[in-house]
Design goal:
The complex is a heterodimer. By secondary structure, chain A is mainly β. Chain A has strands at about 5, 10-15, 20-25, 30-40, 45-50, 55-60, 60-65, 70-75, 85-95, 95-100, 105-110.
Chain lengths: ~110, ~120
């Protein structure tokens, strides 16, 4: 079955450093990948969408890549801040169907 | 970005009663809305896909008679948990996408924390 795997459950990082999160997909080829931020007790908030024909996308301090050879997306938060602490979800999309990764909990320490 | 409003954000109900959760797309039309359930420290689990003007499509293992979905307009879908039991206690989240084709981002509601006592 198609899977989206985020390979670390938790990531602790020092303020100011770059956080890099990994998302791998297996058994299918998503047409696009989305990244969301979710805070405890809240719904996911959309951050970025990258399509399979795009290599890289940026939005402010966020950067996401899509490598169809490695079947992987990397999500970077540069100059991280304590306010970036949250769970980040990688979501693969094909048509209307979304497949969710388990999420990576990021903690940015001052 | 587009806004999806979900109401209520929290509800406590007695076992055996029914609870309705609303999901509205505030500034766009959504022909399709999705309902998810999320357990603590787990990712979202799709329950059903709600199509405007037609019956919802339920995922395997989700009881359609227990989780009633109505999508009466392009901006409103409702999930009714019927005869709720404590095991139905969970975080329920809806999402919607703009009716402008596929491969577009989904926007999520704030979620509803349901506690059945």
């Amino acid at each position: 079955s198609q899977k989206i795997e985020q390979n670390s459950e938790a990531l602790n990082i020092q303020e100011g450093k770059t956080a890099t999160l990994t998302c791998n997909y297996t058994n299918y080829s998503p047409a696009y990948l989305q990244w969301y931020r979710q805070d405890p007790g809240r719904g996911p908030v959309f951050l970025l969408l990258i399509r399979e024909n795009e290599k890289e996308k940026r939005k402010e301090r966020l950067k996401v890549t899509f490598d169809t050879t490695l079947k992987q997306s990397l999500f970077h938060i540069t100059a991280s801040q304590p306010a970036d602490s949250a769970t980040y979800l990688c979501v693969g999309g094909a048509g209307n169907k979304l497949t969710f990764g388990g999420g990576t909990r990021v903690l940015v320490k001052p | 970005g587009a806004v999806v409003s979900q109401h209520p954000s929290r509800v406590i109900c007695k076992s055996g009663t029914s609870v309705k959760i609303e999901c509205r797309s505030l500034d766009f039309q959504a022909t399709t809305m999705f309902w998810y359930r999320q357990f603590p420290k787990k990712s979202l689990m799709l329950m059903a896909t709600s199509n405007e003007g037609s019956k919802a499509t339920y995922e395997q293992g989700v009881e359609k008679d227990k989780f009633l979905i109505n999508h009466a307009s392009l901006t409103l879908s409702t999930l009714t948990v019927t005869s709720a039991h404590p095991e139905d206690s969970s975080f329920y989240i809806c999402s919607a996408r703009e009716a402008r084709g596929e491969n577009t981002e989904a926007f999520f509601g704030q979620g509803t924390r349901l506690t059945v006592v």
